[in-house]
Amino acid sequence: MVGQFLEFIESAPNQSLRSLSDRVLRKCRELTGAEAGTVFMLRGQGRYRHLDAVSVQNDVIRARPTLFSVPVSQASIVGYVAATGETLLLEDAYAIPADRPYSFNSAFDQRTGFRTRSIMAFALKGFRDRPIGVVQLINRRPLEGPPAFLPDHEQMIAPVNHIVGRALERAATLERLTERNRALTKERRRVAELQAETERAFMVSVNLLARAAEVHDEDTGNHILRVNEYSYMLATWAGCSRAFCQEIRFSAALHDVGKMSVDQAVLHKRGRLDERELAEMRRHPVYGHDILVASDRLKMAAEIALYHHEQWAGTGYPFGMKGEEIPLAARIVAIADCYDALRSARPYKPSFSHEKTVDILLNGDDRLDPKVHFDPRLLALFAARHAEFGEIWERLKDQETQDA
């Protein structure tokens, strides 16, 4: 059974989500004798989560199938399965006990004349065993035994659930990345068109470029705005000129623009990078510098992009510069970026409180030694007035929540 699914999954590893879901549904129907069925993929976040039908098949209704969406709610059969991860075997869709939280929506039957009887609905499991979609099978043909789906069918499907789920999850991720790459291309074209316009257009361009650099990351939120404000604040504490402070206030946002040029497979890899992948990731400062250096107005941004991973003790990259060899703007952004990274939730860590973040920045932990990483004079300024960083975080985090 597992081999049958692996065969058609591995035979074409770069199948589209639609193509793969069609083949998965066809195989599930073949194994269970179902007349019809639908594959749903889970989309969205929080209260906006919904199930998109990506494959619909029906041997009785010959009309072209229409794709549709269903909210993730325990009021519907597939919504309940997506929310709970449970498998449902229903003998009669029209005779669901009243004490169940879900009910059957008969609108399709009424519109087409199709008669739904038995239903089998099970969750597709992806990374970390989380539901990423639902397969709903309808009307087992009475080839043998009763015309309802049986526990034997659930046991038949269970061994391949994760294989299929993860294959569909990979296909969905590839589809999202393709869409994001298209969006990224549009944003880069837009940036090129705005370069010759006024100062206002220049600032719009900077913001678009910074946002485009973060298309790959769903979890960054207002990261670039916060890093701008932290950097501006720290520059003023350091006694920098007004012009320097104003320039770093927009230049800091572009510190990771080089990630647009990093191999996407490396950028989205789960788990530890190997030596080749780590070397590719560590090229993003040079890539960023190459993108920005051609513009006279972005000289500081290019400098920050190139040097913000250098460390005070000379242990950083890409050049191993130390102390005041590292440009001041890059030393400032290094602290600002680290503060925001510690405050932000990531797939591999929770969001840290302001107090814990300050403690790590000033005293270190098993991954960070402030004496090695940061300019001690700038760190002393941060130690004296770090509460203002916390205020920036709260203000822009609140704004991020309101905009969501």
TrEMBL record:
It comes from the Bacteria. Residues 198-398 form the HD-GYP domain. CDD domains: HDc. GO terms for molecular function: phosphoric diester hydrolase activity. Pfam families: GAF, HD_5. PANTHER family: CYCLIC DI-GMP PHOSPHODIESTERASE TM_0186-RELATED, TWO-COMPONENT RESPONSE REGULATOR-RELATED. This is Transcriptional regulator. It comes from Azospirillum palustre.
